Amino acid sequence: GQQVMQIPQYQHVQEGEDFTTYCNSSTTLSNIQWYKQRPGGHPVFLIQLVKSGEVKKQKRLTFQFGEAKKNSSLHITATQTTDVGTYFCAQSTNAGKSTFGDGTTLTVKP
Amino acid sequence: DAGITQSPRHKVTETGTPVTLRCHQTENHRYMYWYRQDPGHGLRLIHYSYGVKDTDKGEVSDGYSVSRSKTEDFLLTLESATSSQTSVYFCAIRVGYEAFFGQGTRLTVV
């Protein structure tokens, strides 16, 4: 099946620094979704992108979908301790089946 | 939490024993999913359902079966548990294009 590769696997930042995670596919993606999972918690849906070159913002979070629809990124400006967790990208089919990347685990040092 | 309840939340079982995990939803959503999550990995789809008695396999279905006799309940059964099935299991429902996850069941097979 279609795979999405996510990098980096881990990212450690000082509070206030920026953070970016990248999601890549060898084939064109119909959409890209992003989820956040707090330590010990369950994944929580953040956003879905469907259009080539699409950019969406949620407060300090900026989501981009590449022009070729083969990559996506999540950028967090000025990280806070509340941003800790694992961020997953995923592609979802019409039946709602999702293929997830392996995630990027973010730790923030106060 | 979109009215999703997983039970049990934690379980330790012996190799070779059958185990059933339950996912219950209160809002009559059509699509339900079972995923497993292992350290360092994203979520992988085990089985999914698109209605009562309508189920299909995901990417890691070997060793698992499911049943959905009522809209609100989606059961995942490990017929004969193996140590490789030690994992955290998440149930999810789909609302539009968003997936909502349950709190998870941590299963340990010893």
Shape of chain A: globular
Instruction: Let me know the largest β-sheet of chain B.
Output: 7 strands, mixed
Task: Pick out the low-confidence regions of chain A.
Answer: none
Amount of beta strand of chain A: over 45%
Let me know the number of strands of chain B.
11
**Which chains share the greatest interface?**
A-B, 24 and 22 residues
The main pleated sheet of chain A reads as: 6 strands, mixed
The oligomeric state of the chains shown is heterodimer
Structural class of chain B, please? mainly beta
Q: Helix proportion of residues of chain B, in percent? A: under 10%
How would you sum up the global shape of chain B? globular
| Topology of chain B as a string of helices (H) and strands (E) | EEEEEEEEEEE
* Helix-strand category of chain A: mainly beta
Outline the secondary-structure elements.
The complex is a heterodimer of chains A (110) and B (110).
Chain A: E1 5-7, E2 10-14, E3 19-24, E4 32-37, E5 43-49, E6 55-58, E7 61-65, E8 71-76, E9 85-92, E10 98-100, E11 104-109
Parallel strand pairs in A: 2-11
Antiparallel strand pairs in A: 1-3, 3-8, 4-5, 4-9, 6-7, 7-8, 9-10, 9-11
Chain B: E1 4-7, E2 10-13, E3 19-25, E4 32-37, E5 43-51, E6 54-57, E7 64-70, E8 73-78, E9 87-95, E10 98-101, E11 105-109
Parallel strand pairs in B: 2-11
Antiparallel strand pairs in B: 1-3, 3-8, 4-5, 4-9, 5-6, 7-8, 9-10, 9-11
Give an overview of the whole structure.
The complex is a heterodimer of chains A (110) and B (110). Chain A has no helices and eleven strands. Chain A has strands at residues 5-7, 10-14, 19-24, 32-37, 43-49, 55-58, 61-65, 71-76, 85-92, 98-100, 104-109. In chain A, strands 2, 4, 5, 9, 10 and 11 form a six-stranded mixed sheet that branches. A five-stranded antiparallel sheet of chain A has the order 1-3-8-7-6, with no helix packed on it. In chain A, strand 9 (85-92) and strand 10 form a beta hairpin. Chain B has strands at 4-7, 10-13, 19-25, 32-37, 43-51, 54-57, 64-70, 73-78, 87-95, 98-101, 105-109. Chain B is mostly beta strands and 110 residues long. In chain B, strands 2, 4, 5, 6, 9, 10 and 11 form a seven-stranded mixed sheet that branches. In chain B, strands 1-3-8-7 form a four-stranded antiparallel sheet, with no helix packed on it. The chains are: A mainly beta (110), B mainly beta (110). Chains A and B meet through strand 5, strand 9 and strand 10 of A and strand 5 and strand 10 of B.
